[in-house]
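Task card 7
Instruction: Convert sequence to structure tokens.
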Amino acid sequence: MTPLDWDTALQLSYEWIKAGHVIFVIFWIAGLFMLPRYYVYHQEAAVGSAEEKKWIDRERKLRNIIISPAMILVWVFGLTLAYITNAWDQTWLQVKIAIVFLLSGYHGWMVGYGKKLAKGERPVSGKALRIMNEVPGIATAIIVILVIVRPF
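Output:
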């Protein structure tokens, strides 16, 4: 396939790529809403208990089966959309990408925190985890405004 054919194929697939992007954003954000709540419940379980082992397994599955693959696909579909539309110089997109980058860092921190919990460490309070649960919602609201309203 020549570069021109590749660009044409991407243009013809634009709506499907956009649908994939939105679908995997929903999966990723839903998982990021669930994960801190799982951690709150996990922290309330006794270290080494059967209940704690169940939370460790649930968290691992949520991270490995849903959240991490969804995040990767969000980036792939999103960057493909930016390429197709050649929107790189638009401020709203630059801000959106910066927020998604920060949200990806939050994702990484949450994955690392789950590994600490699995080792029996509890460095963050349940209250702090409940507050952290607001991060994906705030980021999502800002991103939706940037994409729909395009304030700049």
